[in-house]
Design goal:
This protein is an alpha+beta fold and 118 residues long. Helices cover 26% and strands 30% of the residues. A hairpin with a 2-residue loop joins strand 3 and strand 4.
Length: 118
């Protein structure tokens, strides 16, 4: 992961950890221009976990990074970062589907993606 992407991730995690209100968090992330224009806001507004014990970079390319975060309560979150015109932005911040963990699209919660709620 390049230094710019690492800086954006560190800033995102710092704001997530230190901002008490999720509405204020979203405002700060927007003001700092850390989010893509198609970022799904409802997941950040409903985020409960704000401290993470493990971070794993699962997918890395010149334009896309997927990062998995294990929260203190053992729930897993996923951050997707996209490179936009020489800088990185957060495209999504999703929690792992506790209904099927991506194993059963018929349940209708996450449509089998394993992440978020559809």
């Amino acid at each position: 992961m390049d230094i710019v992407a690492n800086h954006i991730l560190d800033k995102f995690l710092y704001l997530l950890k230190t901002t008490e209100s999720n509405y204020l968090l979203l405002k700060l992330l927007k003001n700092d221009d850390l989010l893509t224009t198609d970022f799904e806001e409802r997941y950040i507004l409903n985020a409960i976990d704000k401290q993470f014990k493990d971070i794993e970079i699962a997918e890395l390319s010149s334009e896309n990074i997927i990062i998995y975060l294990d929260a203190i309560d053992n729930l897993t979150y996923r951050i997707e970062m996209k490179k936009k015109e020489k800088t990185w932005k957060i495209k999504s911040f999703l929690f792992q589907c506790q209904g099927c963990f991506g194993e059963d699209p018929s349940r209708g919660v996450c449509d089998g993606s394993g992440w978020g709620v559809q």
